Hints:
The chain has 2 domains: 9-47 and 206-271 and 362-415, FAD/NAD(P)-binding domain (3-Layer(bba) Sandwich), CATH 3.50.50.60; 64-104 and 139-199 and 272-357, 2-Layer Sandwich (D-Amino Acid Oxidase, Chain A, domain 2), CATH 3.30.9. Helix content is 32%, strand content 27%. The chain contains 12 helices and 21 strands. It has helices at residues 18-29, 46-49, 66-75, 86-91, 93-101, 108-132, 153-165, 175-181, 204-217, 259-263, 328-338, 384-399; strands at 9-14, 34-38, 53-54, 82-84, 139-140, 144-148, 171-174, 191-195, 199-201, 221-224, 227-233, 236-241, 244-253, 273-284, 294-296, 301-305, 310-313, 316-318, 343-357, 364-367, 374-378. Strands 4, 6, 7, 8, 14, 15, 16, 17, 18 and 19 form a 10-stranded mixed β-sheet that branches. Strands 1, 2, 10, 11, 12, 13, 20 and 21 form an 8-stranded mixed β-sheet that branches. It has a 3-stranded antiparallel β-sheet with strand order 3-9-5. A hairpin with a 2-residue loop joins β12 (236-241) and β13. α1 (18-29) packs parallel to α9 (204-217), α1 runs parallel beside α12 and α6 (108-132) crosses α12 (384-399). The protein is globular. The two termini are 32 Å apart. Mean pLDDT is 96; it is low at 1-5. The structure holds flavin-adenine dinucleotide (FAD).
Amino acid sequence: MPDQTANKTDVVVLGAGIVGVSAAFATRQRGMSVILIDRREPGSETSYGNAGILSSGSIFPLNQPGLLGKLPQYLSNQHPALRWDVGWALRHPGWIARFLANSAQSQVKPRALALRGLIKASLKLHREWIVKAGAGSRIRETGWLKAWRSDNVAAAKADQAALTDYGIKSELLDRQAISALEPNILPVYSVGLLHTETASVDSPGNVTKAYARMFSAAGGEVRRAEITSIAADADGWRVVLADGEIRSRHVVVALGPWSADLLKPLGYRVPLATERGYHREFKPNAARPLRRPIHDAENAFLMTPMEQGIRVTSGVELTDRDAPSSYAQLDAVVPLARSVVEFGEPVGDVWRGARPTLPDSLPMIGPAPRHSGLWFAFGNQHIGFTTGPATGDAVAAMIAGSAPSFDTSAFSPKRYL
Ligand SMILES: Cc1cc2nc3c(=O)[nH]c(=O)nc-3n(C[C@H](O)[C@H](O)[C@H](O)COP(=O)(O)OP(=O)(O)OC[C@H]3O[C@@H](n4cnc5c(N)ncnc54)[C@H](O)[C@@H]3O)c2cc1C
C-alpha cells in the first residue's frame, strides 16, 4: 500500500461530523497541520439529521431520577418517547444497568454542572464561528419552546426551577402567551416553557459544511476516504484508509456512533450505545411559518422549521446502530405534529440516525488511557450539535498542551476504559 505522505501530519481527525470538523478547525487555528477524513461529505450523518437546536438548557440527560418512574410506561413499547428492542436489551444488560444507575439523585448535580460548562463554552463558539463561516443567516435567536397539551403547570414550573438553579433563563407561558409567540400554530398547548437562551439553525448539515469550508480556508485538508484501521508506529500513528495511509503525530477519533468500532482492535471496549432517531420533513405553509423549534412534552417529538421544510423528529429507539428501520415511532407522531402546525406533502425520505451515548450520558473528551497521541471526542448523545465546537476545541487545546476553556474532568475517557 503506498505511503501517500512521507512527512508526518501533526493531526489527523477521523470523522467530519460537527465534532470532527470542530476539532479540525480548532487544531488548525492553533497552527498545526491537520487532515480531516470522512467517507462522506462533512456533515452528512448524525450532524445532518438532527433538530438543529443549540440548547442552553439540555444539562439533564435522559437518565435522571424521573426516568425510573416512567419505565412502566415504556415497557409496552408503545410510548413515543422510547421504543426498545428486547434482543438488544438482552445483549446489553451491563449498559442498561449502568445507564439506570446514573439516574440516581446523587448523579444529577455533577453531570449537570459538567454539561453546563461544556454547553456554555460551545454556544459561545457556535455564535462566533457561524458568523466567521459566512453562515450567520442560518442561526435564529428565537429560543426553543417546550409545550404541554394538558394543564401541567407543575411540570413546567419544575423544569423552570431546575434550570434556574443552574443560572439558565426561561419564561413560563400560558395559552395566550403561546399564541402571541407562535401566532401560526393551532391552540393545542395549555402551558409552555420558552428556553430563551437557546438558539437553532435552519440546516445543521449546512452549518457543519460551512465550518468545514472555514477549516479548508484556514489551510486544513479535507479528504474523502473510508477509514479501515489505526495503528501506533514508532513516534505517532498510521491511519489506514481504503485507498492508502497517512502518518500522523496525533489522531482524534470523532466518528460519532461509529467510534467504538475502530477502537476495539486497540483493546478499548467503549460502552457506546446508539439511541436511534428519525426525521421527516414536510412542505411548510409559507403563509403560516413556524418561528422556532417546538418540543411536544407529552408526546416526545420535535417540530423545527428548516431550510427545506418542517422537520419532525422522533424520540429514542434503543437498538443496534445498523438494525433495520422501524417507522412506527415517527408515524405515530406525524399526525400529532399536524394537529399543531399546518404542513403539506413530505419533502424527501425518512432519515434515520443514531445518538452516540455512554452510560452516564457524558461524552468522552480527552486522551486515550493507554496510547499517547490518541484522542477521543465522541459520545455527545442528544446534544452533539450543540456541544460539537467545544468538544473539538477542548481536544485541540489538550493536543497543543494548553488548558481547555471549561472543566473537562467529568469527560475523561478513563472513567470507562
Ligand atoms: C433525531 C435526532 C435529533 C437530534 N437533535 C439534536 C439537536 O437538536 N441538538 C443537538 O445538539 N443535537 C441533536 N442530536 C444529536 C446530534 O445530532 C449528535 O450528537 C451529533 O450530530 C454527533 O456528531 P458527531 O460528529 O459525533 O457524529 P456524526 O455527525 O455522525 O459524524 C461522524 C462521522 O464519521 C464518519 N465515519 C464513521 N465511520 C467512518 C469510517 N470508517 N470511515 C470514514 N468515515 C467514517 C461518518 O461518515 C460521519 O460523518 C440529535 C440526534 C438525533 C438522532
